[in-house]
What does this fold into?
Amino acid sequence: MLDGVDAFVRVAERRSFRAAAKDLGVSPSAVSQQVKALEERAGVPLLVRTTRSVGLTEAGEIFLRRSGPALAELAAAFDETRNLGEPAGLLRLNMPKDVIPILIEPVLAEFCEAYPRIDLEIVTSDIPGNLIEEGYDAGVHLGEMLDNDTVGLRLTDPIRFVVVASPDYLEHHGRPRVLADLRDHSCIRMFARGESGTKWVFIEDGRPVTVSVTGRVVANDIGLCITAACKGLGLFFTAERLVADRIAQGQLEVVLPDHTPTSDGLYLHYPSRTHILPKLRVFIDFVSARLKR
It folds into this structure.
């Protein structure tokens, strides 16, 4: 009864026989045969095939809507019972680069030692994207970026953002006192989500205010931007917890503290129709416990 259903769901989600075949570890022709057999049993075409793309017929949309969640639950049931003794398998996670120092680096070695049968694959991306289509078990992003069709589990408290600069920079260029002063300063910009960080968002009189900034340094690596700020190359806007040590050591100072915003915090999110597998559950519990500690 279930023959071909998994193949159909993979093709429908990936919009590609080749990508679905790669996910399933079989040849594209094998996937095509399975889907064709399923269509024969259903009595109607489920997919529209062209030389460039794969789409769903009306019947295919109905079949995917009904079979997808059931298949996911069935797969979860097999995985849960199979891994009842010890969580195992490949855990694929998606998160921004600047989350790595907060979330992964402090726990990576301990987690791998505690769960030797779980393989971790971490891919950095500033945009949550579609976890199912891209083949991720879960992602880690700011709460305000998440869609309604994902389940979010809070990992951190709200995160405060600050503007920082080195004492040397402030001595030579002055300290900005109001938001308008930022236009006269060199600002280190973080390249993310296809934008070069030219707009910083602040809070003024309880409302968000966007300020356009300029500067000679633009990078897509958070560590490089922090180092540039410490070297006196300009002001930098970032999460306070990422520079807390540098502030405590006197390498950086906070400016405009009354105008900096607070994010909802980091959430681990996964598709709402996916049951939490043991490998993901132990990762959530492990990271949450250490973040609280």
